[in-house]
Amino acid sequence: MRHLLDTRSLSRDEAILILDTAEEMAATQQREIKKLPTLRGKTVVNLFFEDSTRTRISFEAAAKRLSADVINFSAKGSSVSKGESLKDTAQTLQAIGADGVVIRHPASGAPAKLAASNWIDAGVLNAGDGTHEHPTQALLDAFTMRRRLFGGSGSAGQSGDASRGRDLDGVSVVIVGDIAHSRVARSNLWLLNALGAHVTFVAPETLLPYGARTWPVTVHHSFDTALREEQPDVVMMLRIQSERMHAAFFPNEREYARVWGLDGARLAGLGDRAIVMHPGPMNRGLEISSGAADSDRSTVLEQVANGVSVRMAALYLLLSGERTEQA
Questions:
Q1: Any known ligand binding at 244?
Q2: Which of 9, 17, 80, 145 would bridge 75 by S-S if both were Cys, CB 3.0 to 4.6 A apart?
Q3: Does residue 1 fall inside a structural domain?
Q4: Phi, psi (5° rounding) for residue 177?
Q5: Tens of pLDDT along 164-219?
Q6: Any binding-site annotation on 65?
Q7: 198 annotated to bind ligand
Q8: Exposure letters 50-83 (e unless 16+ CB within 10 A, then b)
Q9: Quick check: pTM over 0.90?
């Protein structure tokens, strides 16, 4: 792999390779000494133009566990806040010898622009760009689904041997909430389709992206109807991204929680093996109740733990060999 920019261009085999490599990485994390020498001598730069906690820390932990040198770069307090362009920032990273760049940017397409330029000779990994995609979040979500649905309990401390090599053929995934502003929803849609899952979006019309009905997805406005008709194996709740909203997209928070929130009654009505996911951070009491977030069905903390293994796999596949193949 040369870069990891999206899931839409990933084939089934490429996706399964990443997920199976993540299983190998997860196995090493059960040892007393968790570090691997794989990326010793490599430099990974976390280039974050947007605030992040889980993703940035997860990538930092993943790179360090592969023995890479890590440089954390935040736009706040840097030359970017003084008007420096992405090109000039990239050329600075080139000058210091970056081998891999993990980039989060508010502009959709910024990672692809960086990867396609001649500004820097480094593998580029998209950690979220605007409302476009967030590929490693979708990969860690799929990794968590495989482990929970096919690999025993799937907790972070358990082996995922039974899930190796598996796709998600026939799995029903219902994604609920702020689809319009969610790069997580888009990345999950393309990846889950490649892995054979059936995806359903549930949202008010105002929170559906333009053109969503032309995508390979079933669309519902009623959460209760979707639960009844789709019989989901996975219910993924999305955060209301108020920071990206510049208008009123629903009447009020109480109404949203009543119509589109995962509460105790909806949780109790799920099938026996159904799991509850959320990419975080959660707005408890809005898109998800505390009871649902803390229930045995919830995979929220597993997703965080699994994120390190998945990001280790992505960095390994991008940076461990000669980057001659275009992806």
A1: no
A2: 80
A3: no
A4: 125, -135
A5: 888 999 999 999 999 998 999 999 999 999 999 999 999 999 899 988 989 999 99
A6: no
A7: no
A8: bebeebbebbbbbbbbbebbbbebbbeeeebeee
A9: yes
Q: Is 137 annotated as a binding residue?
A: yes
H or E element that contains 292: helix 290-293
Question: pLDDT for 204-219, tens place per residue?
Answer: 998 999 889 899 999 9
What DSSP line would sit under 128-155, residue for residue? Answer: EETTTB-HHHHHHHHHHHHHHHHSTT--
The answer to whether 21 is a known ligand-binding residue is no
Asked if residue 186 belongs to a known ligand binding site, the reply is: no
Are residues 163 and 204 located together in one domain of the fold? Answer: yes
Judge if 122 and 160 occupy the same domain.
Answer: no
Q: Is 82 annotated as a binding residue?
A: yes
Mean pLDDT across the chain: 90
**Helices and strands of the chain, counted as H and E runs:** 11, 9
Report whether 104 belongs to an annotated binding site: yes
Residue 42 marked ligand-binding: no
Q: Are 290 and 300 in contact (CB under 8 A)?
A: no
Q: At 294, which amino acid appears?
A: D
149 shares its domain with 188: yes
- What is the rounded average pLDDT of the residues 265-278? 97
Identify the domain containing residue 46 by its residue range.
12-133+305-319
pLDDT at 251: 65
> Is 258 a known ligand-binding residue?
no
Residues 211 and 315 in one domain: no
Measured CA to CA, the distance from residue 178 to residue 238 in angstroms comes to: 6
DSSP state for residue 267 in the 8-state scheme: H
Residue 157 — very low, low, confident or very high, per pLDDT cuts 50/70/90? very low
